UniProtKB/TrEMBL annotation:
<feature type="transmembrane region" description="Helical">
    <location>
        <begin position="33"/>
        <end position="52"/>
    </location>
</feature>
<dbReference type="InterPro" id="IPR003805">
    <property type="entry name" value="CobS"/>
</dbReference>
<keyword id="KW-0169">Cobalamin biosynthesis</keyword>
<dbReference type="GO" id="GO:0051073">
    <property type="term" value="F:adenosylcobinamide-GDP ribazoletransferase activity"/>
</dbReference>
<comment type="function">
    <text>Joins adenosylcobinamide-GDP and alpha-ribazole to generate adenosylcobalamin (Ado-cobalamin). Also synthesizes adenosylcobalamin 5'-phosphate from adenosylcobinamide-GDP and alpha-ribazole 5'-phosphate.</text>
</comment>
<feature type="transmembrane region" description="Helical">
    <location>
        <begin position="104"/>
        <end position="129"/>
    </location>
</feature>
<dbReference type="GO" id="GO:0008818">
    <property type="term" value="F:cobalamin 5'-phosphate synthase activity"/>
</dbReference>
<comment type="pathway">
    <text>Cofactor biosynthesis; adenosylcobalamin biosynthesis; adenosylcobalamin from cob(II)yrinate a,c-diamide: step 7/7.</text>
</comment>
<keyword id="KW-0472">Membrane</keyword>
<feature type="transmembrane region" description="Helical">
    <location>
        <begin position="188"/>
        <end position="211"/>
    </location>
</feature>
<keyword id="KW-0812">Transmembrane</keyword>
<dbReference type="GO" id="GO:0005886">
    <property type="term" value="C:plasma membrane"/>
</dbReference>
<comment type="similarity">
    <text>Belongs to the CobS family.</text>
</comment>
<keyword id="KW-0460">Magnesium</keyword>
<dbReference type="Pfam" id="PF02654">
    <property type="entry name" value="CobS"/>
</dbReference>
<protein>
    <recommendedName>
        <fullName>Adenosylcobinamide-GDP ribazoletransferase</fullName>
        <ecNumber>2.7.8.26</ecNumber>
    </recommendedName>
</protein>
<keyword id="KW-1133">Transmembrane helix</keyword>
């Protein structure tokens, strides 16, 4: 069943045409550990673009393209909705309403632009570092996916929907195994273990910040919240890893 869950995770978290049947989805929804496990594969794939010879700026653009070529843009919609909600001058009710609106507002456009710019600049910075820094992509991806799993494990959904499909089948007890499986991602960047660990930690902190905001303003974890947490945590992890590299 774990292999079936991994197929389901690939179908949800990437553009791979697998795991989109009912059995794979059900197995994935019941096993949060599939999030970080798939993160290793996706991180390795997107990290290959960081090894392309060329100017750092060009590599940065290639990296951003590679991320979305592998993972798709479905989760970016969550970033757009979150940005629109943050731009609303109103209470939590107003923020919830704007997230249901299919029209892209200025806040959403700005949020998406910042995330994409964050990927490009992170890729450019990593390209200027020694080759093993490319493994930050793995730590960032695994951290982002572990962050999503954390929201699933400790959060609850305010209504039926994609978020409820995950939160209803998970419990806080799964949180430990999720992060235990994520920790080996730091070893891949040897000897730069500390920067990779900082990247992983940054992803978890960002995910918790998104969870706190979602509880206060949306009443819980929705599909958009999961998507936004993934995208923002990835960017934060990459930049945290680069900053840590320059200091340690």
């Amino acid at each position: 069943m774990v292999l079936t869950a991994l197929r389901g995770a690939l179908g949800f978290l990437s553009r791979f045409p697998v795991g989109r049947d009912g059995d794979a989805w059900a197995a994935f929804a019941e096993r949060p550990i599939a999030f970080p496990l798939v993160g290793y594969l996706l991180g390795a794939l997107v990290g290959l673009s960081l090894l392309i010879p060329g100017p750092p700026a060009t590599v940065g653009i290639a990296f951003a393209v590679g991320v979305y070529a592998v993972t798709g843009i479905n989760h970016v919609d969550g970033v757009a909705d979150l940005g629109d909600a943050l731009a609303v001058h109103g209470d939590a009710t107003a923020q919830r309403e704007v997230m249901k609106d299919t029209t892209l507002g200025v806040g959403g456009a700005l949020a998406v632009a910042l995330v994409v710019a964050g990927l490009v600049t992170a890729g450019s910075a990593i390209a200027a570092l020694p080759a093993q820094a490319a493994f930050f992509a793995v730590a960032a991806e695994v951290g982002a996916k572990a962050g999503m799993a954390s929201l699933v494990c400790v959060g609850s959904s305010p209504h039926d929907g994609l978020g409820a499909g995950f939160t209803a089948n998970a419990s806080p007890r799964a949180l430990g195994p999720v992060w235990l499986l994520a920790l080996p991602a730091t070893l891949l960047a040897w000897p730069a273990i500390v920067p990779a660990a900082v990247a992983l930690l940054a992803a978890g902190v960002v995910a918790l910040a998104v969870l706190r905001w979602a509880r206060s303003n949306l009443g819980g974890v929705t599909g958009d919240v999961l998507g936004a947490a993934n995208e923002i945590a990835r960017v934060a992890a990459l930049h945290a890893g680069v900053i840590a590299w320059t200091h340690w």
